[in-house]
Amino acid sequence: ALPIWPGVALDGGTPVAERQAVVDAFQAEGPRSPPFLVLSLKVGGAGLNLTAASHVVHFDRWWNPAAEDQATGRAHRIGQRRGVLVHKFICRGTLEERVDQMLREKRTLAGDVVGEGQEFTLTDLDDEQVLSLVSLDVRSALAEVI
After folding, report:
1. What confidence tens digit (pLDDT) does each residue in 115-130 have?
2. Is 37 exposed, middle or buried (0-12, 13-18, 19+ CB in 10 A)?
3. Which phi and psi (to 5°) does residue 57 adopt?
4. What is the reported pLDDT for 69?
5. Contact, 45 vs 11, CB < 8 A?
6. 3-state class (DSSP) for residue 10
7. Distance between CA atoms of 48 and 7, rounded to whole angstroms?
8. What stretches of 41-137 show up as alpha helix (H) in DSSP?
């Protein structure tokens, strides 16, 4: 039988003093290092470099696409020597599917408003652009009314 080594987890409840030890154990890449690291999105977006990661799995996804992208980026760091596959846990007909759709729409909107890879603040927009972002599209709002 194959030996089984438990993975490690890191979340907001992990004492700050222990977090680096968990990351170091995962990054060790030795035959006894943990085969996986589970971390919450908040912790995953907070200054970690995880170059030992070859897969990123998003489950219980956040409603903020930038936070998810930042957490994914922790595995795409200087020093990464392997490809990284990103998996998104989505079950059809569930809240996860609706969150995924919303995230895709938010990314599209952000790309349409500011272009890919650019950052902006509302003060960068003219009055018409701000109004178009915050105005209610009545047709869309009423489209699925039965």
Report:
1. 655 566 667 777 887 7
2. buried
3. -120, 120
4. 80
5. no
6. strand
7. 17
8. 41-44, 65-73, 95-114, 127-134
- How many angstroms separate the Cα of 143 from the Cα of each of 102, 109, 138, 140? 17, 20, 8, 5
Cβ 118 vs Cβ 89: under 8 Å: no
Q: Which of 17-26, 36-45, 82-91, 98-107 has the lowest mean pLDDT?
A: 36-45
Q: Which residue, chain included where needed, has tokens 């696409």?
A: 65
Question: What does the alpha-carbon distance between residue 54 and residue 85 come to, in Å, rounded to a whole number?
Answer: 6
Handedness of CA 64, 67, 92, 39 (dihedral sign): negative
Decide: 111 and 92 in contact? Cβ < 8 Å.
no
Contact status, residue 99 vs residue 79, Cβ threshold 8 Å: no
